[in-house]
# Entry
Amino acid sequence: MKKMINSKKHSTETREGEAEFFKFLLVDEDGKSHEITAEAYEKDKMLNRKERVYHSLREFVDDELGKPKERGEPPHIKLMKQLELVDYCEVSDSGHFKWHPNGVLIKELILTYQDRLAREYGAFKIENPLIYRLEDGRIRQLIGEFAERLYSWEENGSHLILRPASDPGQFPYAQSLTFSYKQLPLKQYEEAPCFRKEQKGELSGLRRVRNFLMTDLHVFAANEEQAKEEFETLSFLCKDIMDSIVSDGTWVLGWEATEDYWEENQAWMEHVTAQLGVPALVKLMKERSHYFHMKNEFQAIHPNGLATQVSTVQIDKVNGERFDITYTGRDNEEHPCTLLHCSTFGSIERTLTTLLEDALRAEKPMLPMWLAPTQVRFIPVNEEMVPYADKVADDLEASQIRVDIDDQADSVSRKIRRAERAWIPVIIVVGSKEKETGNFKPRLRKEGTEQTMQLNEIVDYVQEKTGEYPYHPLALPRRLSKRPKFVG
# Structure
């Protein structure tokens, strides 16, 4: 371990390979920047503005430069169990989790959406191995930046590792391709299981784990100018994800860069910040600590003030040469590529962390409608109403709505409480009156109201909330009486 000044604790020890940040700046929504210090940032006028986004920026800066805060157990841990999404796995290593059916459904929906985004952006999808040999000097050099957190072992004279979050497979893959300036920028995408052996004391629910799934996109550009164009496009893609799905109104931007990169590109970085319309904290290092010279981070700020990085875009001028990733130019000569790394949803685990904790801001928390494992729940008033509930459920299901039925032998009030606890967006009690008239009075969780609606209006309501997002069917049997209990 080495002594350093960093953004968390000035003049203390941190993990090997972390950047030494020696200068900090703030950039406002208009792209104007000024320097701050760890000793005096609390009095900064910009950080004391009343707008919500500046309050979020203050929380982020405080989390980076202030004293560590005692926050207790992250709220999402209780929620992931309560909603029967994810849980600890007693027969695995710490920091590895088991996913219940509804958790798997959410993960698959996010990946389906990300796959669509990547393809619309022009990326082709690939898959690489999870195990790599350190005998390859390029892999060893790349992995050296993450060496102390590896899952590694010796076998048949080879030193093997599980894939960390450092893209060891994507670069040799790109190196094996033949392409010219005509195909640039070249874009490839992978859903990448990653392993990082964090210390036990650093593990924190789904926010900090030892096994996670990244949405990992790489762009191979002809030069830095082309890379900057793609950087802006990807940054706006990440902004849309943060605004529309993950953490609307409660996220801010972070930048990390070498001092030289900032001095050469300050106007451009300020311009990008202004275009994104979100204030930022800039952290500068004398020399790069990893392969990137600059990156941005889309930081979600939780209700307790903790910041979690979700999306990120990075410019890499190292690995094109390190792995000899070249393209044929107009001059018929080979030229090294400038690389971009982009993780839109970051890890799925961190995305779910943010979705759950951000939901707590509402009086009645809920997931986005398209990610809700059950979107509509029917509650029959008695056993005789179950067949009718099944019939109307068929109609909703035909419109690609996830609907289930609480047919358990409980009172209606208890069934409603169970649905509320499961964050069901639309709850509909079904009795003889509803069967006779075709009119329902759904409880709409987001609005906190009950409205008289016909079935087609319920379909319209749900479809308006789900928009063009992907649909997958229920992960569990429709009737609750047919389901096991996953927790407790």
Q: What stands out?
A: The radius of gyration is 25 Å. Residues 369-482 form a domain with the Rossmann fold fold (CATH 3.40.50.800). Residues 1-17 have pLDDT under 50 and may be disordered.
